[in-house]
Design brief:
Blueprint lengths: L2 H11 L25 H5 L16
GO biological process, one term: methylation
Keywords: Methyltransferase, Transferase
Protein name: Type I restriction-modification system, DNA-methyltransferase subunit M
Length: 59
């Protein structure tokens, strides 16, 4: 694994200011790789964990 592999994640993670983080996924942009989930969405899951699979591989 190289820095280049994580560059997008680091940019979206925005460690300098976590309140300025922006997700890249939306209904209009389903190709975006980064999506935020609210606390309520996470605890409403069958098993409360962070193993969230929402990306779909192209067929």
């Amino acid at each position: 694994m190289k820095y280049l592999d994580l560059e997008d994640l680091i940019q979206c993670y925005n460690p300098e200011n976590r309140f300025s983080r922006k997700e890249t996924w939306s209904e209009e942009s389903p190709e975006g790789r980064f999506r935020k989930f609210s606390y309520e969405e996470i605890v409403a899951r069958d098993k409360t964990n962070l193993d969230i699979f929402w990306l779909k591989e192209p067929c």
